[in-house]
Specification:
mainly alpha; 76% helix
Length: 379
């Protein structure tokens, strides 16, 4: 049952501060946790509404899970909610990454946190599978959409670029809807970083802000795409980072909770201390707020148009297909021994049968992982 009315800014802030703090596992896991909280537990959105916002985030540049948080905030509390939800989802991760960056600069290496991720990754797999099962019922609501979803899974698994999968899904459903007389078109601006090799440029906060603002405004794709953008600008063009420092930065963005784009926070701190971390973080996330502010109010209108609604249906099915392929890839890396398989299975039972909060399961997994790796090191 969907809760009518508006949500208080305090409640929004509380939820997204929590998700930003315990959201390990990357965008797929973040999306699954948001679905659990705002659809299953709180009834703030229907599954169909949640899927529409998820589809919309896949069609604009920037960090998908952060943009989804911003969409939810706008849907439940208007423009103030848009700002509060986004900032509260980003802030915990930015603070955690800043602390890790301080340790990195101070000691010259990454903190040892393998135990946390050993225990958290299997739990994350269970959380994402739960979300896929629930969202799949809403997204794959016809034989045509089921067939489209299967085709998208096959395409993604064989290496077809994620944007091609998404737009092909939307286009296929648009073509099928043309019998009703609807027409649709989509224009997406893609950018690429300027790659120049030269001498080291003098560091400035203004240039740092510009690099990350451009990256946030044009980047589609995963943390590996982010790596390519930052390498072109910060290693090759400006000469501010070494290859190893950049790899360390991307690794920290991947393994700490919250948005992967907090890689920017790490880079900013390494280059310019606290001010650098703040400038880089604002630069890379600011376009997400702008794009959601522009596109968010259009999503309900698109759903009312038969052809545009068909495009959204196709994009939603393709989005879930991409999420399923990522989950399979994550599972292969996370379920490495009987202990992790058991942890994932137990988490799935607790989620699906007893509706235990994913937040508690993630925290429990982290504790179990630390204990398990501590015991193995003693042995």
């Amino acid at each position: 049952m969907v809760e009518s009315g508006r949500t208080s800014l305090t409640e929004l802030a509380r939820l997204f501060l929590k998700l930003g703090t315990i959201g390990f596992g990357g965008p797929a896991a973040h999306i699954a946790m948001m679905e659990d909280e705002v659809v299953r537990r709180r009834g703030w959105l229907t599954r169909e509404q949640f899927l529409d916002y998820l589809g919309a985030t896949n069609l604009i540049p920037g960090p998908n899970s952060t943009e989804l948080a911003i969409h939810i905030g706008h849907a439940r509390a208007g423009w103030p909610g848009l700002v509060v939800a986004g900032i509260c989802f980003i802030l915990p991760a930015a603070l955690i990454v800043t602390a890790v960056a301080w340790a990195y600069v101070r000691f010259g290496t990454l903190p040892a946190i393998e135990g946390v991720f050993y225990g958290v990754k299997p739990v994350v797999i269970a959380v994402v599978v739960q979300a896929l099962l629930g969202l799949g019922k809403a997204a794959l609501k016809s034989p045509t959409l089921m067939a489209l979803g299967l085709a998208a899974v096959i395409a993604a698994a064989t290496g077809v670029h994620e944007l091609v999968v998404l737009f092909a899904g939307g286009a296929a459903m648009a073509l099928l809807s043309r019998a009703t007389g609807g027409t649709t078109s989509a224009l997406v601006a893609l950018g690429s970083p300027l790659v120049l090799t030269g001498a080291v440029a003098p560091f400035s906060l203004g240039t740092l802000f510009g690099v990350f603002l451009k990256t946030g405004a044009v980047l589609f794709g995963s943390g590996y795409v982010l790596l390519a953008f930052l390498r072109a600008d910060l290693v090759e063009r400006l000469g501010w980072l070494t290859e190893q420092q950049l790899l360390d930065a991307v690794a920290i963005g991947q393994v700490t909770p919250g948005p992967v784009f907090t890689t920017a926070t790490f880079v900013g701190y390494v280059l310019g201390g606290g001010p650098g971390a703040a400038v880089a973080t604002v630069g890379i996330f600011l376009p997400a707020f702008f794009f959601v502010a522009l596109s968010g109010p259009l999503v309900p209108r698109l759903r009312r148009s038969p052809t545009a609604g068909a495009v959204l249906d196709g994009v939603n099915a393709a989005s879930l297909a991409l999420m399923a392929v990522v989950t399979w890839q994550l599972a292969r890396a996370a379920l490495v021994d009987p202990a992790t398989i058991l942890l994932a299975g137990a988490s799935a039972v607790l989620l699906l049968r007893y509706r235990v909060s994913s937040a508690w399961l993630v925290l429990s997994g982290a504790i179990a992982g630390v204990i398990a790796t501590g015991l193995s090191h003693r042995g």
